[in-house]
């Protein structure tokens, strides 16, 4: 397999996936926030909350449409750029994608029209139910996509069939309740809730700075800060759960994130900062915090976390074991239905490590003919890029804690300081609008780049997964995607800015009339209080 082809295929998929994920977090979080705001409207019957709901729903709609368009394009790439991957594991990977389309996407598509055009057709309660169904559908989409992705990280509930030369599902229950998938789902949707909360808070802060739409802005900040604080705390807690899961499902990824070259005596320290040197296999100027990594990774004081060097040796052993399975597999192919039972027994005994033998196909057509040097190189290939993972993870974590601080401060001002916000805090709220997207993209980078060199961890190497396309084909389509997505990005930003500048343009007269009457009632109550 030509390395240039594989790398271009990876670049194209990474570009489309990370661009698509610019829309996903806001869709996940804003759908819930809009549903919460409409629930307040149903409970209070105050027109201001109806206006607030419609305003944020408009921005949700813009983001939702473009997110769906980019998501469909991304899924087609499994057949276009990764055809062997689709053939090899399609029975497992395709199931949650199909369910996502049948259940979640249809749920969204059915009710999103009623959400936007059913205000005068449905009662307040009925419309609120529709809005919640749209929010649930959006989050169900994330669930099934992350079940599929979680299986790539931890391929449970499936086995390789030597007769069909494909992976086949043995337990849908195991695939669905894969611990990696469940941890990724709750962590990802919580990150989406933080993204939407920061967005709502930032836009509302901008309105307060410009002295516009103050009633909408203050109420929106109150909801966003409370919801965002809970979500930001959840992100940290659930991120810890992902780290614990990685300690026994993706040990190499965890070791690379921590730049842990050697196995430390338990409990392992956490490297706060440092400069990983992959060639020298050491981290320069490392600042370590004792015990922390052991507690996070194993939740104990006496369990070791293996280092990269020891894991490379384990990979070498798995490659050698996988070669036995590969040899038996070739005999099964050659003899077809007349394979001796002893050969099948040999394959079954060693099939768990077949994927490691396939790593050698990067260097030799028949892994059985690999040299010692090629086996050692293939084992070394199981180490992903350490420095990018190390710093991406730390920047993501730093941003996560900063969201807790910001949301906590705004929640305190909204709840205990009568919604009076200093101007410096409002400027800060506007300035941090892009940061949740940066944190989300870093999170996906850590998850996917850290899985290399595997498309399906321990099962299918990335170098074998790509379609047999030409470099010219990939360059042309990559250029087309970049151009098309750039146009969509300009459209998205233009529409968002347009409607943010326009502000809450619906139900203006009704809301202003209610607000004037409400203020008059408050003045009347104040005047009725006897002077002391």
From TrEMBL:
Topological type in the membrane: Multi-pass membrane protein
Family annotation (Pfam families): Cyt_bd_oxida_I
Coarse class of the protein's main subcellular location: membrane
Keyword field contains Cell cycle: no
Transmembrane segments: 20-43, 55-72, 92-117, 129-152, 185-209, 221-239, 391-412, 424-447, 467-491
GO cellular component: cytochrome complex; plasma membrane
UniProt family annotation: Belongs to the cytochrome ubiquinol oxidase subunit 1 family.
Protein's name according to its UniProt entry: Cytochrome d terminal oxidase subunit 1
């Amino acid at each position: 397999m030509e390395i240039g082809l594989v790398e271009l295929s990876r670049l194209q998929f990474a570009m489309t996936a990370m661009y698509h994920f610019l829309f996903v977090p806001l869709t996940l979080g804003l759908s819930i926030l809009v549903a919460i705001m409409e629930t307040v409207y149903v409970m209070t019957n105050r027109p201001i909350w109806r206006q607030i709901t419609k305003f944020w729903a408009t921005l949700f709609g813009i983001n939702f449409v473009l997110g769906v368009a980019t998501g469909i394009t991304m899924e087609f790439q499994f057949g276009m750029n990764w055809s062997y991957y689709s053939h090899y594991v399609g029975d497992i990977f395709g199931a949650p994608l199909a369910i996502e389309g049948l259940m979640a996407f249809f749920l969204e598509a059915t009710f999103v029209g009623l959400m936007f055009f059913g205000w005068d057709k449905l009662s307040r309660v009925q419309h609120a139910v529709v809005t919640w169904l749209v929010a649930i559908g959006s989050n169900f989409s994330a669930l099934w996509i992350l079940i599929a992705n979680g299986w790539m990280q931890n391929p449970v509930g499936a086995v390789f069939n030597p007769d069909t030369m494909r992976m086949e599902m043995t337990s849908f229950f195991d695939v669905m309740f894969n611990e990696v998938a469940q941890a990724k789902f709750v962590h990802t949707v919580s990150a989406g809730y933080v993204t939407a909360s920061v967005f709502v808070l930032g836009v509302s802060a901008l309105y307060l700075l410009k002295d516009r739409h103050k009633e909408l802005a203050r109420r929106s900040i109150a909801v966003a800060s409370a919801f965002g604080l809970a979500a930001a705390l959840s992100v940290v807690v659930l991120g810890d759960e992902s780290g614990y899961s990685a300690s026994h499902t993706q040990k190499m990824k965890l070791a690379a994130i921590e730049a842990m070259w050697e196995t430390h005596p338990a409990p392992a320290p956490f490297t706060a900062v440092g400069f990983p040197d992959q060639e020298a296999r050491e981290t320069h100027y490392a600042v370590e915090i004792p015990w922390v990594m052991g507690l996070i990774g194993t939740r104990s004081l006496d369990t070791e976390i293996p280092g990269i060097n020891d894991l490379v040796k384990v990979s070498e052993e798995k490659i050698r074991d996988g070669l036995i399975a590969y040899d038996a597999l070739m005999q099964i192919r050659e003899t077809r239905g007349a394979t001796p039972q002893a050969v099948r027994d040999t394959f079954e005994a060693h099939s768990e490590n077949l994927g490691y033998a396939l790593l050698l196909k990067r260097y030799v057509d028949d892994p059985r003919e690999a040299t010692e040097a090629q086996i050692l190189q293939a084992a070394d290939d199981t180490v992903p890029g350490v420095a990018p993972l190390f710093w991406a993870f730390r920047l993501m974590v730093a941003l996560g804690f900063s969201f807790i601080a910001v949301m906590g401060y705004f929640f305190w001002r909204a709840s205990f300081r009568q919604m009076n916000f200093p101007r410096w805090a409002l400027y800060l709220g506007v300035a941090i609008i892009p940061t949740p997207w940066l944190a989300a993209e870093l999170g996906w980078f850590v998850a996917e780049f850290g899985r290399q060199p595997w498309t399906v961890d321990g099962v299918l190497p990335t170098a074998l997964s790509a379609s047999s396309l030409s470099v010219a084909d990939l360059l042309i389509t990559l250029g087309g995607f970049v151009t098309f997505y750039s146009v969509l990005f300009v459209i998205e930003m233009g529409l968002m800015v347009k409607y943010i500048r326009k502000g809450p343009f619906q139900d203006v007269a009704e809301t202003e009339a209610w607000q004037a009457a409400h203020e008059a009632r408050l003045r009347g109550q104040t005047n009725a209080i006897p002077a002391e």
